[in-house]
Write a structure and sequence with these properties.
Blueprint lengths: L11 H10 L1 H4 L24 E5 L2 E6 L2 E2 L2 E5 L2 E5 L8 E4 L5 E4 L9 E5 L2 E5 L9 E5 L2 E5 L8 E4 L5 E4 L9 E5 L2 E5 L9 E5 L2 E5 L9 E5 L2 E5 L8 E4 L5 E4 L9 E5 L2 E5 L9 E3 L2 E3 L9 E3 L2 E3 L5 E2 L24 E4 L4 E3 L13 E3 L2 H6 L3 E2 L3
Parallel strand pairs: 30-32
Antiparallel strand pairs: 1-2, 2-3, 4-5, 6-7, 8-9, 10-11, 12-13, 14-15, 16-17, 18-19, 20-21, 22-23, 24-25, 26-27, 27-28, 29-30, 29-31
Length: about 375
């Protein structure tokens, strides 16, 4: 489940070009155009004093009767004057591609937030706009992408690690995030977990390469198979997958296979795929429709004893088959009636067969004899 990460819209040039060409939008935070228009060169007939002068709707700084251009530091603040000496306000990009912001007074902004076109930017110590950088402020972490805009929602840094930022831009951490129908987890550093385990409230969860929590899915890890149910929690003990097939997982969550499992007073067998077997022979044992090993029962023409093992008819074994009665009568496959008190058995053709209330039944005389019974005389 891939995250619905929204690409950070636009480039720095695209965002700020709009601001530069539209003074009304650019002034939403500072109430002044971002960049002053440059007029014709200023020609002065009389010498004027060095310093700031306002003329023809613009501010200039004069030294020796000429307007200064480029960077200027005055009274502890920095300013930038264009090629014709016009003081800049709003955004300015230098030849290195770095962005700066100058407030309504023309002073360069440092260590402050600036909102432009509904997006937030931050100017650092040197006055440059943060790009692909983190900022710790007010007890929260913020991230600024390649266009310098503060991240909200899902975003990744230059290492390719995903983070989530709330509507105010604050990075989230140590919490679950539901997004696009999937669940994700942000660790203590805020990084989204991917290809990793998480223990939460005593249960184990796993997140795939996209960061999505596994739910109703298998995981092969370290030579073992694990299963995660609808809640995403790792299975242990008995569990079914989406096909309704039963599997058994040990305390560490690893699926067991090719072995018997004792559970609830019954025995079950897990095949090579780990699936619980049903209606099948496992060596000399048979597991029924519910997967439990059958005892003292016929399976077709074969009989399994009290221990579940198949008993070969006529073997003379002390564990030779005894079949339970049905309402005092014997089934067709084991018609010989036995009385436990007298240790006598009756054949169907004998005189007292029909009037005998069977307590046990046998398939053949050798089985009855093997259990110490003797044949009735008539």
């Amino acid at each position: 489940m891939r995250k619905s990460y929204r690409a950070l819209a636009g480039t720095i040039a695209g965002v700020l070009a709009l601001a530069i060409s539209s003074p009304a939008v650019a002034s939403e935070s500072v109430n002044k155009p971002m960049i002053a228009s440059v007029g014709t060169p200023l020609i002065l007939d009389n010498k004027i004093s060095d310093g700031w002068h306002h003329t023809e709707g613009h501010w200039y700084y004069f030294v020796g009767n000429y307007p200064v251009s480029g960077w200027l530091e005055d009274a502890g603040k920095r300013y930038y004057l264009g090629d014709e000496g016009v003081m800049i306000t709003g955004w300015m990009q230098n030849k290195l591609g770095e962005y700066f912001y100058f407030d309504a007074s023309g002073a360069m902004t440092t260590n402050k937030w600036v909102q432009t076109n509904g997006r937030w930017f931050y100017l650092g110590d040197s006055g440059t706009m943060l790009v692909n950088q983190w900022l710790s402020a007010g007890g929260h972490w913020y991230y600024f992408g390649s266009d310098g805009a503060m991240a909200t929602g899902w975003a990744k840094d230059t290492t390719g690690t995903y983070y989530y930022f709330n509507v105010s831009g604050a990075m989230q951490s140590n919490q679950w995030m539901a997004s696009g129908g999937q669940w994700y987890y942000l660790n203590s550093s805020g990084a989204m977990l991917a290809n990793n385990w998480l223990q939460s409230n005593g249960k184990w969860y796993y997140f795939d390469a996209t960061g999505a929590m596994l739910a109703n899915r298998w995981l092969s890890a370290g030579g073992q198979w694990y299963y995660f149910g609808a809640s995403g929690a790792m299975a242990s003990g008995w569990a079914t997958d989406t096909t309704g097939t039963y599997y058994y997982f040990n305390a560490s969550g690893a699926m067991l296979s090719n072995q018997w499992i004792a559970s609830g007073g019954q025995w079950y067998y897990l095949g090579s795929s780990g699936a619980m077997m049903r209606n099948a022979w496992v060596g000399n044992y048979y597991v029924g429709p519910d997967g439990a090993m059958m005892r003292n029962a016929w399976i077709g023409n074969y009989y399994v004893g009290a221990d579940g093992a198949w008993i070969a008819s006529g073997s003379g074994s002390a564990t030779q088959s005894i079949v339970n009665t049905i309402g005092g009568q014997c089934p067709a496959y084991a018609p010989i009636k036995g009385n436990q008190s007298s240790m006598i058995y009756h054949m169907p053709e004998q005189r007292f067969y029909n009037s005998t209330n069977a307590e046990v039944c046998f398939a053949n005389q050798s089985d009855a004899i093997a259990h110490g019974y003797r044949k009735a005389k008539v």
